[in-house]
Amino acid sequence: MQKKIKRSGVAGDSMPRGIGGSRKWIGIVVAGVVLGAAGSAFAQQKISDDVVKIGVLTDMSGGYSDFTGSASVIAAQMAVEDFAKSGVVAGKKIEIVSADHQNKADIGAERARNWFDRDKVDVIVELVSTNVALAVMDVAEQKNRLALVSGAATQSITNERCNASTVHWVYDSYGLASGTAKAVMNAGKKNWYFIAADYTAGAAMVKDASQVVSAGGGKVLGVAKHPFPNPDFSSYLLSAQASKADVIALANGGQDTITAIKQAAEFGIAGSKQSLVPIVLFINDVHALGLKTAQGLTLTEGFYWNRDAKSRAWSRRFFERAKKMPSMAHAGVYSSVLNYLKAVEKTGTDDAATVMKQLKSTDIDDGLFKGRIRADGKFAHDMMLLEVKKPSESTEPWDYYHVRGVIPAADSAMPLAQSKCKLVQR
Questions:
Q1: What is the pLDDT of residues 395-412, one digit of tens each?
Q2: Taking the model in full, what pTM does it have?
């Protein structure tokens, strides 16, 4: 007697026996689809062109080159070496290329397109100068590559201009205002006059600081806009002086800030009843000014080399090669490259979307910065409220700051509830 074979209850078993062959073909097709999808996923996990290529696009010769420039390339090289002495990630060689964008958006965008299309660069880092950063991050989005910004200031990078290809790594105009402007307002300095560079970052710094001033019951008495770069601030400083404002705020950066502070000292503004307040200032700017001129200035930074043992150890290694202490932008290049490589190693691919997903899903703590990348691409970490020391208070070269307070990540980044970024879920 023939045994009856018990049939499983899987879909398709109710089909008539006459088309059993069709079931076999369906199974083969389904298996082929599954294997094809798996093969496609596996292919995406590979390193494109058998190399992970990192582009450092920065200001090599202009007004921002001291706190970025060639030393940013050194920071990137240090990150590669600290990641792997072999210079290899996910079994593939790591390469670094660099170029000068000359603080011009069209040059930056063209370099980015050539790097992505011709030279197969996977990620561009640094990107000081807001106009360049905004142009390059748009190209990165179009080409499905990444842009990790350390030197640019405008908050719009992770707000209305945000995209899924960009991380704003170190600081922005909101964080600077949250520190410096609030501290000065709390000291009773209510009436402000701005001397601002006539570009996007200058406008962003004025906007964010003005909101802090207004919220604290203060007034903005005037805004004077100057071209970039600008060698003479005499007329702007005289107008600010005549306004009788409690605060003369400098919404510019690099050499422009240095020049304005030096000329303010010549006009006797430093040490007067009016306070000179740079919205953004780097330790390299303080070094160029000297403590005699810079003493007493209040500022906000995301990194200070002399903050703790880890930052000192890394910074002294950096100094051996760069012959200067690192700015927060230099530290940001190191941190962004190191964590990018960690994400590539973890995922086994340099696919932009996959790497970005990994970056945003991981807490970052690399000895220089500690925090997390938010949905809008903002790397939220603590900032520091600093005061420049008097010459008599400095105990060694580059020992320039008193740390007057720590601004928590939650306060130094704009609340996501206020964000206009398309990546933020409502």
A1: 999 999 999 999 999 999
A2: 0.88
